[in-house]
Amino acid sequence: MNIPFLDSWLKRLGGDQEDGTPTQAAPQRVDDPAYAATVAELLAECELLRVRAGEAGLALDDSPDSLAALDQLPPRWREDPEELPWLGNDAGLYLGTVIVRRVPGAHWRLRPGGHPVVELASGRTVNVVEAGLDWAVAGAPELSLVYAEAAEA
Asked: Is the pLDDT of residue 77 over 90?
């Protein structure tokens, strides 16, 4: 899935400002710690999901327990077909954020085209956005189960 704000941010890193002066150079490697931290921060925003969870009385604290709590929410978002893919995308990014912050050795990888996935220490890749979209549409797989599988890998 294409993430417009990430595309804009990546272009700003390597291009010129509107007045023609150069911006700071883009990191040469995706695994550059400063680059990785900035990408992780952007992906962790998940604003729509955090708002909808807050409206349901759930504060998302980037913990595995919050994933289980999300799994228990009534899926009212399914009533809005325009919001559904955005919420699913956010759910996937939130799932990835929890995995990256809680599972040793897990980190974000950007596939060509800017598609974010989580790579585990074992080398296994978790397509968290796809899992989040499936969860939003069908309720399965549960986010907490995807996390548990990643934590065991």
From this structure: no
The two beta strands, 116-119 and 125-126, are antiparallel
pLDDT at 25: 40
Kindly state the tokens that stand for 67. 């994933």
Query: Who's near 83: CB < 8 A, 6+ residues apart?
Result: 48, 77
- Helices 84-102, 47-55: axis angle to 10 degrees equals 100
CB-based contacts of 141: which residues, under 8 Å, 6+ apart?
A: 131, 134, 135
**Scanning the structure block, which residue is given the tokens 């998940």?**
46
Q: Taking phi first (over 0 means left), then psi (-120 to 50 degrees means alpha), and beta for anything else, what does residue 62 get?
A: left
List, in order, residues 6 or more apart from 55 with CB less than 8 Å away. none
pLDDT of 17 > 60? The answer is: no
pLDDT tens-digit map of 91-128: 999 999 999 999 999 999 998 888 899 999 999 999 99
pTM: predicted TM-score of the whole model, two decimal places: 0.80
